[in-house]
Design goal:
Helix content is about 55%, strand content about 10%. Strands 2-1-3-4 form a 4-stranded mixed sheet, covered by helices on one side. It is of the alpha+beta class.
């Protein structure tokens, strides 16, 4: 049985939970992270030295990094629709997943905790404004890609890239801040809301 270590509210854990839903996988979940079991123990750090969630266990096999976990599970299940074995198609899927993790994710590093969580450590107005501007700039990049690609990030069909990006769109949409009108992103968000997995895991459990 696949075991997932990580708290359900975590955006990165929800990537894995949504992927499991799309794949029809059974799993056991243990809640780790702030407010739940600690990731700072010797035992947890032996699984992931970064002391972060999610971590998946499959027998003796241990894997961390959410996007890698999603790719592993899709490949293990042979889901060509989600993660193609064609090198170019797979590379494009991974490109957008890694862009989300490395570029889009970093764009909200200051603005999100300030505006959504009222973090006392993130209350510099200039840095908030700069963060919002950078976040919106990256979302404009996604808007332009969706204008080119159509229904989903890579075209007419849902792929694994839409899982991290769908979660990112949800976070951007729910954060109280000024946002430009991005019609392709809005249509994409509406389209994702037709998927049960997104409604259950992509929208913080909100129907």
């Amino acid at each position: 049985m696949l075991k997932i270590l990580g708290k359900s509210p975590s955006i990165n854990v929800r990537k894995v939970l949504w992927t499991c839903h799309e794949l029809g996988l059974d799993y056991e979940q243990e809640q780790f992270g702030v407010g739940f079991q600690s990731t700072q123990t010797v035992e947890f750090k032996a699984l992931n030295p970064n002391a972060m969630v999610p971590v998946v266990l499959e027998g003796e096999f241990v894997l961390w990094e959410s996007n890698v976990i999603c790719r592993y599970l899709a490949a293990r299940e042979g889901r060509e629709d989600l993660l193609s074995s064609d090198p170019k198609r797979r590379a494009l899927t991974e490109q957008w997943m890694d862009w989300q993790a490395g570029e889009l994710n970093n764009a909200w590093r200051y603005a999100f905790p300030a505006l959504a969580r009222n973090s006392p450590q993130h209350q510099d107005p200039a840095l908030i404004d700069a963060g919002v501007s950078e976040w919106n700039r990256h979302m404009q990049m996604l808007e332009e890609q969706l204008q080119r690609s159509g229904d989903y990030v890579l075209g007419d069909n849902f792929t694994l890239a839409d899982i991290p990006l769908g979660l990112a769109v949800n976070r951007w949409s729910m954060t109280p801040m000024p946002r430009p009108a991005l019609p392709a992103v809005t249509a994409y968000y509406d389209r994702l809301n037709q998927r049960e997995g997104f409604r259950q895991y992509g929208r913080n459990g909100l129907v």
